[in-house]
Specification:
The structure holds 2 protein chains of 2 kinds.
Chain A (H helix, E strand, L loop, with lengths): L7 H4 L6 H6 L2 H19 L1 H8 L1 H26 L7 H17 L4 H24 L5 H20 L11 H9 L1 E2 L2 E2 H19 L1 H11 L1 H6 L4 H27 L10 H11 L11 H20 L7 H18 L6
Antiparallel strand pairs in A: 1-2
Helix pairs in contact in A: 3-4, 3-15, 5-10, 5-13, 5-14, 5-15, 6-7, 6-8, 6-13, 7-8, 7-13, 9-13, 10-11, 14-15, 14-16, 15-16
Chain B lengths: L3 E10 L2 E11 L4 E5 L6 H8 L7 E6 L2 E2 L5 H6 L2 E4 L11 H5 L6 E2 L6 E2 L1 H14 L15 H14 L4 E5 L7 H16 L3 E5 L3 H7 L2 E6 L2 E7 L5 H9 L6
Helix pairs in contact in B: 5-6
Classes of the chains: A mainly alpha, B alpha/beta.
Chain lengths: 336, 246
């Protein structure tokens, strides 16, 4: 047999330019929406400009979505591997209650914060262990943990409302509610964590392997990627991120009850989906999480300032979630 | 001396005897076609070589030294690579990322060690050029043709300087015109001195590139001869049992 000519050239298309690649990325379009929605609102309602772009509203806006975005950064890691973490709302409550409980009992902020972080890590580790090593479905395991966490928060708080945090109360409130360089602290933490996670996803072996697991778990196993350990790690990461959000949130609110974070798992997952993270795994990034959370907050805030009955907020957010998935389908990709 | 020598291999799964008394050897720079019906023991034999499980009986010698593989990593470290039928490729990663998956090239100093994508892309490009494939290292595999995906899988084995490559049905899942391309890839690997096992149901492919043909039937070896001394008719007879031994 003679050497066969290569047929590949027939199918190849020119390399997409940087611009074309940017246009094909969902976070880019969401970013555009984040900028444009307030501008359009301003055109229709001049008074809106003062309300929306006032310093106070802007700080509120960014701080409100910072908590969700921080949790979404952990969620993205889970979703890149093809899993899902539904337990984050309850993890937030357990961490928050642990923090309140210990500070209320007179312990220092630092001890309480470490305990809160550990609580998040332990809950993530239990999720991760069951999913990685016992091969249970992430949906079911974290759904169970959603119920367990909320019940644990109720039990350990004894349904108490914590609003006194001992002598470190000013420190806690400064960390969660204060500003540094004119930016709300939770927003700063979000920016730092997003940069760190963005770096990890893009430039480290760990990040590359997470995408590989999401793309083809079996193949990753065959090439020697430590699949089970990495899958365990993303649930721990999600728990840790949630615990960080819990500490900041309790500091900002100045109080904590076991009802904190109810329904947050949906807002977190909605953020990642709107940002363009694929539910089937293998795709997504840190920017997607942040920009998705930002868009939800912009929609919420714009509707509020435009005088739309808050009862309709869920409808608008829901429409955007469905639009996000529809956008992916239109671009010809498989979607979850 | 044979590169790989397996003697009197038997494999039992409970009461089922998947392989019995099989001798099998591989020479460098030769393609061995491994044929047989479903359940004849082909994949069991391949899995033993790849280190998925040790044989119930028998010995394996690699370059004259006895080896015992208990997990796939053992075999890979000894220079045995498998290209799986489903290709074991991550569609969401680039060709270069797939080639280097699990053995990424890093740069920088601890604690900031980052992926050296430029280096990996460059080396993948060279590998693809050696394979005469036009696969572009920075393209995502999802958008590639079956032949290009094979090239990615094969470049992986090339990177590791494998001595033995086990190919599980490499031409089963691709279009007819890409088959020739893949068979050419196999011949290039052989010419570089690798020993290749081609497991296939497609008689024309096996006869197009193999040097040696081995046929298994019901866990026993019924033929092991140079391909020139055999024929598709004879092999068909051996597979179905119409011919008992050749």
């Amino acid at each position: 047999m003679t050497t066969a000519p290569s047929f590949e050239a027939d199918f190849s298309s020119p390399r997409p330019s940087v611009w074309q690649r940017l246009l094909s990325k969902q976070p880019f379009w969401v970013m555009i929406a984040v900028v444009i929605i307030p501008l359009i609102m301003t055109l229709f309602e001049p008074s809106f400009r003062h309300a929306f772009f006032s310093g106070e509203n802007f700080v509120n806006n960014t701080r409100n979505f910072a908590f969700i975005a921080i949790m979404a950064l952990g969620q993205v890691a889970v979703m890149i591997t093809g899993g899902i973490d539904l337990s984050v709302g309850s993890t937030l409550a357990v961490s928050g209650i642990v923090l309140g409980l210990l500070m209320d009992a007179g312990h220092s902020f630092w001890l309480a914060a470490i305990a809160a972080l550990l609580a998040g890590i332990v809950m993530g580790a239990i999720n991760g262990f069951l999913i990685s090593y016992l091969k249970l479905s992430s949906f079911v395991v974290t759904l169970g943990m959603l119920s367990i966490g909320r019940s644990v928060a109720l039990a350990i708080s004894n349904n108490k409302f914590f609003h006194q945090f001992g002598e470190d109360e000013p420190l806690l409130q400064a960390i969660g509610g204060g500003k540094t360089f004119g930016i709300a602290n939770p927003v700063l933490v979000m920016i730092v964590l997003a940069l760190v996670m963005g770096f990890v996803f893009r430039y480290t072996r760990y990040g590359r392997h997470l995408y590989a697991i999401g793309g083809n778990e079996h193949a990753s196993q065959l090439t020697g990627v430590p699949v089970d350990l990495l899958k365990l790690s993303v649930y721990v990461l999600s728990g840790l991120m949630t615990a960080i959000a819990a500490i900041l949130m309790v500091g900002w609110l100045g109080s904590v009850t076991n009802g904190i974070g109810i329904g947050y798992e949906l807002r977190v997952i909605a953020s990642t989906v709107i940002g363009g993270v694929n539910l089937l795994g293998g795709e997504g990034g840190a920017f997607a999480a942040v920009v998705g959370a930002a868009l939800i907050e912009i929609i919420r805030n714009s509707l509020l300032l435009a005088g739309v009955d808050p009862y309709w907020q869920g409808t608008f957010v829901g429409i955007f979630i469905i639009l996000a998935v529809l956008l992916e389908r239109l671009r010809g990709r498989k979607v979850g | 001396m044979a590169l790989l020598e397996m003697t009197n291999i038997a494999m039992r799964f409970g009461a089922i005897e998947a392989l019995a008394g099989v001798d099998f050897s591989l020479e460098p720079g030769r393609i061995t076609g491994l044929m047989g019906d479903n359940g004849a023991g082909k994949s069991t034999l391949v899995k033993i070589i790849a280190g998925n499980f040790p044989p119930s009986e028998g010995n394996m010698f690699l370059e004259g030294k006895e080896v015992h593989f208990h997990k796939p990593v053992d075999a890979r470290q000894a220079g045995i690579e498998v290209v799986y039928q489903d290709l074991a490729i991550c569609n969401n990663l680039t060709a270069s990322a797939n080639v280097f998956l699990g053995r990424e090239v890093m740069k920088g100093f601890w604690p900031v060690r980052i992926l050296d994508n430029w280096m990996m892309s460059g080396r993948s490009k060279v590998l693809f050029e050696e394979l005469k494939s036009e696969t572009r290292p920075d393209d995502v595999v999802r958008s590639m043709s079956g032949g290009q995906r094979q090239a990615v899988a094969i470049a992986r084995t090339h990177l590791s300087k494998a001595k033995i490559v086990l190919m599980d049905e490499p031409t089963a899942a691709i279009s007819v015109r890409q088959v020739a391309e893949v068979l050419d890839l196999l011949k290039r690997l052989r010419d570089q001195g690798m020993a290749i096992v081609l497991i296939s149901h497609r008689m024309p492919d096996v006869f197009a590139v193999s040097d040696q043909i081995v046929v298994l039937r019901r866990g026993r070896k019924v033929a092991d001869k140079p391909i020139l001394k055999s024929s598709p008719e004879e092999v068909t007879g051996l597979i179905t049992g119409a011919i008992k031994l050749a």
